[in-house]
Amino acid sequence: MASGGYGFGIVPTESRPRGIQRIGAAIGNCPLRHRAAEFIRFLRLLDGRAPTDLDLHLSADNYAAHKTAGEPRRRIKAYHPVDARPLTGYPHRLQPGSSAVMADVPTFAVPPGFLGLARRDRDAAFVVAGVPLDIGTTSRAGARDGPRAIRQASRMLVDGAHPEFWIEPAKLPLADIGDLAIALGDIPASLALIEQQAASLAHLVALGGEHGITLPLLRALAKRLGRPLGLVHFDAHVDTWAENFGQRYAHGSVFFHAIEEGVVEPRRMIQIGIRSPVQREVWDWTLARGVHVIGAQEVHAAEPASVAARIRDAVGDGPVYLSFDIDALDPAFAPGTGTPEVGGLASWQAQAILRRLVGVGFVGMDVVEVAPAYDVAEITALAAATIAWEYLALVGAAASGGGHAPGS
Ligand SMILES: [Mn+2]
Hints:
The structure is a single chain. By secondary structure, this protein is of the alpha/beta class. It folds into two domains: 84 residues, no CATH class; 300 residues, Ureohydrolase domain (Arginase, Chain A), CATH 3.40.800. Strand 9, helix 7 and strand 10 form a beta-alpha-beta unit. Helix 4 packs across helix 12, helix 6 packs parallel to helix 7 and helix 10 packs across helix 11. It is globular, with a radius of gyration of 23 Å. The N and C termini lie far apart (60 Å). Manganese (II) ion binds next to loops. The site of manganese (II) ion has 7 residues, from loops.
């Protein structure tokens, strides 16, 4: 691949314009190859020092640059290394979609997207996107690494159909568009960016990130639908605190704001798996709004079918959002999270409840709070990937007119 004198793999595609040599001088023999971080660094160098108009083309195996004749101003074009999707503008400045480059992982035989998806277009009927925000966490941070861990774990789920719905989620009209851009270190600006990027996506399955991402996703959906949403909320925590340790928009105040802003209908909202310590006034405020709560102990004492029936009764007809905090599961099943609470749901309980929600009018979902640094043997990431996979099978079954409520 690399031509003589350009040990980093830049190849002029036409002639060998002078600009190439200057870039070569700028970055020397930096080994780029498949390393995304190196590539981002390379773009920074190119941005700062390239003297002429350039087109930069990437493929999985090489990087080629050539001078663009006749361009009136200096410009960089970059293309995604897997599918050649154009990355417009300056990719290292976190334009929407650009951090897909950083989310990609080395791959053997399976493309790096969720469930090995090769589709990357934002126009797909179902869209998976990572949202690597975790600066609103109150205990252990690290959920920014959730999306890549969930994508990696999802590779366990690509070798066949869902054994009850007989849907293969990877064969739905489903794209993985990479990670949404966030504003590093700035919660309100990040929420605004997330809402803006989610606004045009038809049916989003978001991989968090911390729970704070849910508020802008709900805002975008409610605005698009012109009405508030019903909510199925799996969590160990009520997340209806008015603020979190001084932060107005953090991962524990999501549903306080969602209710106050009217993007969620509290009487069509139901929380499952709740068990953390909580101030009595927060608990009372939540119930007084009309929110339904099924504590973890109630789930354990009940059959999944009766829990599902209560969920159906609560959300009724109309559009419903599913927000699944992985800490709804017991730390035995999901240790890799920032604020674990013992006494939680087993993975199978969450599956058994979800599978009985066929026909609920789901319009989007997220699975949040996966923090891989505290995970063991990828079980938390696999649980999160499986929840998203269950959801896709559920809505896929509904969309195809099939599906049934198991055991009913
Ligand atoms: Mn939680």
